[in-house]
Amino acid sequence: MKRIFGIVGWVVMAVLGAGALGSIALHRSEPLNATWFVVAAVCCYLVAYRLYSAFVAAKVLALDDKRATPCERHDDGRDFVPTNKWVLFGHHFAAIAGPGPLVGPTLAAQFGYLPGTLWLIAGAALAGCVQDFVILFCSIRRDGKSLGQMAREEVSERGGFIAQLAVLAIMTILLAVIGLVVVNALKSSPWATFTLAMTIPIALLLGLYLRFVRPGRVLEASVMGVALVLFVVVAGQWVADSPSWSRVFTLSGVALAFAIIAYGFAASALPVWLLLAPRDYLSAFIKAGAIFSLAAGILFVRPQVLMPPLTRFIDGTGPVFAGKIFPFCFITIACGAISGFHSLISSGTTPKMILRESHARFIGYGAMLLESFVGVMAMVAACAMPPGVYFAINSPSSMVGGTGDAAAATISGWGYALQGQTMNDLAHKVGELTLWNRAGGAPSLAVGMAQIFSSTIGGERLLSIWYHFAIMFEALFILTVLDAGTRVGRFMVQDLGGRVWKPFGRTGWTPGVLLSSAFIVALWGYFLYQGVVDPLGGINSLWPLFGISNQLLAAVALVVATTILMKMGRLRWIWVTLLPMAWLVIITMTASYQKIFDANPRIGFLAYANALAAQVAVGRIPAEKIAETERLIFNQRLDAAVTGVLAAMILVLIVEALVHWYAILTHHKESVLYESPYIATRWAADFSGVAHGDD
Amino acid sequence: MTKTVRATSRFLRRFWRGLREWCGDAAYEHYLRSPATRSGCRPVLSAEEFYVEQLNSRYSRPSRCC
């Protein structure tokens, strides 16, 4: 009887999900309510988790709870710590959820709400969650080895090297592009700049407290830190209202870029306990709070989605970034659907802390579903504002015109009615000097979040506070990714440099620390600067590059996963990882080709470089702008070269994998699986972790 | 009524423990209770040494995603 009720319940859930998805897809008349998005996403996620992840767990991976996991075999209280599955879920989710699922869907909203929403739900259920889950499982079976180590052992030396290069490439481009998002969020905004600047002394204070006063008492320090951060969000208004202080904190894009570069260097070179770690604690608490508040706000307010399902920009002429839905929607939304970077987390700390193999399903597959839901919420927040306002915030001035009236006329001409005064009023209400041309996703998401939050608490009176809270929340955890990423990049550079000259590889050697930090910061700093001065807005060139590199890393992870499944004798089920991998290869190769060779200068790097070179040749560029234009031409060719290298890496990897698979399948090569030996668990079946075991 | 109060208090206790574990507040206590520490094979670190060692190890590999 219970079984019948269960089946009926899941059928109802599936029908409800399909109905909600149908409403989203086919609705054309008046604005749609955001509740449909929540219902569609939640039902699809629950059905995918109940059915597909159970199938992957039972048939494809054959998870075995009688097998001891790395934390049981190596329990050292440091890295290998048996952890309750709910706590580890929280750890894993906090690690994978960065700015990507917020910014990507916001940018992709230029196509309308439909393509992005469908890709977020389907991509996560069939590709992203599978990648995270399978890589987590593979790493558990190998004592928590990293993706690079697994690629080297299970695929080939070259595969491992490509994985290492892919990580360095993604790190460089990721740090540049998220730096650009912060620059565009803080540009000409004394309130936001002051708030974010103040988080640095707050973090230093926390760092000293946690090191010398109450070592390791993270919770009490974080509570104090969060209270101080909330105070400076409010205090930012006083700074913005004071003419003299306001001038100090009103910075141009270039000045902000250099400030962020200097911050990245300092965070990488200073002791980690002083700045980086306390910022991370602050960011984790505020991130968790803001995401849950956004979910609660959407459910409480149930806003109308004003963006149409499809906009005219599906033809590839979008002002936020150029390119058609295929492949650019799938490149723009990486995190939230499938993100290669997650495979580094799934093969990092999490496998060393997991209690049972079966928990990998809840943590690997489940946490990614939650991240996808964050992406859907970001889509709702972006689409809940009038489309005209969305395009005004996210379009660069080169697309819509330099003045408010010209931009309003251009955007209205696209069919999205907008008055110049509307933008001025909105900027005034949120406490900003201007909201025109603030590409990057953060300001428009902050406007969307502020409107949802203020409809819940405070009304229009608190709109400016909510807006700056949202900006602070986004910028704070973007900078956390930026400083943690710079530090990891520094270790990679030191590791590579140490092979040439040994002392350089010593992580405690000060000249080595300073030189490697300067090198990695210069690497991403160059791309950041290039994005800030790019007349097309920077996001147009850097975000697709980031998407391509992220999906490249996902392709590496899925190649490793497919190879391992093949070696485990699960040939029948390898489509589970092979199909997402094939899809990623198709979209990354198509996007790479278009970004390099497309004849449209807004899409093709080379076409843009050639168009600029032609203008220089015929003397249409004023003499004082020639050097700047030459630099722009060089940057476009550099971007084309970087894209080409990324595409070549995918091709080499695929050829390498195909040769390897052929050798395994035809028995030309012995199929050796590098799993840790089987050891039966000695823990009781109901053991649920150190702290909970004594409950 | 008593049952509800007891269940709520148990839930809150568990939530508090989970929160302390999640944010790293309880890491040193775990370390002291771990079999490797209790075996006495290695010298036991002070709270401060353990905290710095943990941070150095955590932030030398990708720990925050995009």
Question: Stretches of chain A where pLDDT falls below 50 for ≥5 residues?
Answer: 691-695
In spatial order, strands of the major sheet of chain A run 1-2
Please give the domain count of chain B. 1
For the sheet with most strands of chain B, the description reads: none
| Shape by Cα distribution of chain A | globular
- Helical run tally of chain B: 4
**What is the string of helix and strand elements of chain B?**
HHHH
The largest chain-to-chain contact, stated as pair and per-chain residue counts, equals:
A-B, 66 and 42 residues
**Strand elements of chain A, count:** 2
Mean pLDDT of chain A: 92
Instruction: Please give the alpha-carbon distance between the first and last residues of chain B.
Output: 47 Å
Taking Cα atoms only, what radius of gyration of chain B do you get, to the nearest Å?
Answer: 17 Å
Strand content of chain A: under 5%
Topology:
The complex is a heterodimer of chains A (695) and B (66).
Chain A: H1 2-26, E1 32-33, H2 35-60, H3 70-73, H4 85-96, H5 100-108, H6 113-140, H7 147-155, H8 157-186, H9 190-213, H10 218-241, H11 243-248, H12 253-269, H13 276-301, E2 304-305, H14 325-332, H15 342-346, H16 350-353, H17 359-383, H18 387-394, H19 397-400, H20 404-413, H21 420-429, H22 442-456, H23 463-500, H24 510-533, H25 539-567, H26 575-597, H27 605-617, H28 626-665, H29 690-693
Antiparallel strand pairs in A: 1-2
Helix pairs in contact in A: 1-2, 2-6, 2-17, 4-17, 5-17, 6-17, 6-25, 6-26, 7-8, 7-25, 8-12, 8-23, 8-24, 8-25, 8-28, 9-10, 9-13, 9-23, 10-13, 10-23, 12-23, 12-24, 13-17, 13-22, 13-23, 14-25, 14-26, 17-22, 22-23, 23-24, 25-26, 25-28, 26-28, 27-28
Chain B: H1 2-23, H2 27-33, H3 35-38, H4 47-58
